[in-house]
Amino acid sequence: MDYTIFAVIIFVVALLVVGGAFLIRPRRPEAPPEPPAEEREGGTAGTTTVEPEEETAERERAPDTAVAEPEAPAAPEVETPPPSAGRLVRLRARLARSQNVFGQGLLSLLAADRLDESTWEEIEDTLITADVGVTSASQIVENLRTKVKVLGSRTPAEVRDLLRSELLAQIGTDQDRTVRTEPHAGGPAVIMVVGVNGTGKTTTTGKLARVLVGDGRSVVLGAADTFRAAAADQLETWGSRVGAPVVRKEEGADPASVAFEAVARGMDDHADTVIVDTAGRLHTKTGLMDELGKVKRVIEKKTSVDDVLLVLDATTGQNGLRQARVFAEVVNISGIVLTKLDGTAKGGIVVQVQRELGVPVKLVGLGEGPDDLAPFDPEEFVDAILDAGE
């Protein structure tokens, strides 16, 4: 009996163990329903495979990792400036307007019914006020008095012709006013541009590059004014407009080394002309004057300097002449560029600066536009002054 009960208990326990194991076994996931036959076989035209919702949502949440390539900045459009020929004729109206008092004053005084001593003194004062200079003004008046006395009659046409011939005699029509831009056997022509800051020196350098490119020349610019970072930036802007490369270095670099490398670049590129813009701190700074002399000497180790152009502000009068004398002592000025000539009635500075320095005015600035720099023509200049008075 005891054995029977014991066997029953063992059987029950075994049954419970086997049944529990079966109950707690994980259920196998049901297989998803098979897709239609056309999808199993690769589908027909117009059918797509549907992605699981979770995967689709995940892809929508994922950021777009494809980064668009930044567009390269567009190269500046290279301009084609007008040629130098006829520029002063085109800009003559600006010059005439600014010289109105000068021309009108002289012509009206000379055409007076009576030319007494006080009238001649007034004529001389008008010339001096126009910055002709005391010596030149006295000489002009003396010559005019003699001619008027000899001729006797003074019609408006005669007065104009008398004054025109006298002004042309003072300015000079037989001087060589050519800016030397022709390449030679030793390489490109080299032009140094010097002057005090504020006279428009760097702007003149850029405008001169435009004049030369307009005449079909190839140009390299040297940013040797390393004391002003803005000067190199400004020159680079001018160069990019006409396709002229600019040689520059960091601020404070040796100006002579920049000039030397600009000339070397001009030789390598077989350029026609190299224009070197130099520093322009106050002319009273001895160090700057020495630096300019050094720049010229370093260039001459590689090739000759064909032109040294001094930029003067036409409105500065005597102060400008003092600057001119100091620069001329250091770098042997070969030509003058008069800027802002359209904004002053002191056109007589042309006479005075040539008389003081013994070098010709070669270029004049007659506005703020990029093509307002023109080769100086004495006859066009005098006619513009006198036409303003008619």
Describe the secondary-structure layout.
Layout: H1 2-24, H2 37-40, H3 53-61, H4 87-90, H5 92-98, H6 100-110, H7 117-129, H8 134-151, H9 156-171, E1 189-194, H10 201-214, E2 219-223, H11 229-242, E3 246-247, H12 255-268, E4 273-277, H13 286-300, E5 307-313, H14 318-331, E6 335-339, H15 349-357, E7 361-365, E8 373-375, H16 378-387
Question: Mind explaining what this structure looks like?
Answer:
Residues 360-373 form the SRP54-type proteins GTP-binding domain. Residues 27-84 are annotated as: Disordered. Helix content is 50%, strand content 10%. The chain has 390 residues and is of the alpha/beta class. An 8-stranded mixed β-sheet has the order 3-2-4-1-5-6-7-8, with helices on both faces. Helix 5 crosses helix 16 (378-387), helix 12 runs parallel beside helix 13 and helix 13 packs across helix 14 (318-331). The N and C termini lie far apart (155 Å). The model is unreliable at 37-52 and 54-59 (pLDDT under 50).
In the predicted model, the low-confidence regions spanning at least 5 consecutive residues are 37-52, 54-59
Instruction: Give Rg in angstroms.
Output: 42 Å
Helix amount, in percent?
A: 40-55%
- Please give the order of strands in the largest beta sheet: 3-2-4-1-5-6-7-8
Structural class: alpha/beta
Strand content: 5-15%
Helical segment tally?
A: 16
> What string, H for helix and E for strand, traces the elements in order?
HHHHHHHHHEHEHEHEHEHEHEEH
The total beta strand count reads 8
Query: Mean of the pLDDT scores?
Result: 80
